[in-house]
Amino acid sequence: MPRTLDGQITMEKTPSYFVTKEAPRRIHSMSRDTKLIVVVRDPVTRAISDYTQTLSKNPSIPSFQALAFKNLSTGLIDTSWSAVRIGIYAKHLENWLQFFPLSRFLFVSGERLVSDPAGEMGRVQDFLGLQRLVTDRHFYFNETKGFPCLKKPEGDSKPRCLGKSKGRPHPTIDGQGVQRLRDFYRPFNMKFYQMTGQDFGWD
C-alpha cells in the first residue's frame, strides 16, 4: 500500500481478503490502524449469485445442487465449495478478530445497499470520518437492473450503473435445496449477528 498523507484516504478493495486466512496478519503488520469495511449479503443469495457468475463464464459446469450438496437426499452440504464456504461469515470474522478489534470494522448490508444506498453510504462516510457528501440525491433506482445507479445531483451528466455482469437473473434453484442451505447457514448467521452486534435479517 502506498503511504497515505494527511487529508488522504488510501483504499484497496479485494473481496477475497475477508476469506483468506493469511490476510489479517499481513494487513495488521502493515498497519494496525487500517479501517476495514465488509459488505455482506444473505449467504444463500450470495452462493447462488457466485454460481450464476461462474455459469456465465462456463455454461458446462454441474448444477448448483450438484456443487452445493455432497448428498442432496440427506441434505449434506459441501463446505469445500468456495461459493458455500465464503458465506460462513462468523468463521472468517473470528480469524480477523485475532488481529483487529471490532471497532476497526464496518459491516455493510448488501441488501440495504440496494434498498437504501444513501443510508448505507452515510454509515460508510461516518466510519471513515468524512463529511457526508454522498446523499440520496446521488442515487436513482434502475428498474431494468433492479438496483440503484449513481447520478450527479446537478443532473448534468449521464448516470452511471454497474456493468452487464451485475443484476443478471439467477437460475431457478430447487426450493428444498434452498431451504436446506438456509437451515445450514442459520446458526452461523446467528453467531455473526452476535459477533457484530447487527441483525442482518437473513432469517
UniProtKB/TrEMBL annotation:
GO terms for molecular function: [heparan sulfate]-glucosamine 3-sulfotransferase activity. Keywords: Disulfide bond, Glycoprotein, Transferase. 3'-phosphoadenylyl sulfate binds at residues 41, 49, 166-170. The keyword Flavoprotein does not apply. Disulfide bonds join 149-161. Its EC number is 2.8.2.-. This is Sulfotransferase. The lineage of its organism: Eukaryota, Metazoa, Chordata, Craniata, Vertebrata. The gene is HS3ST6.
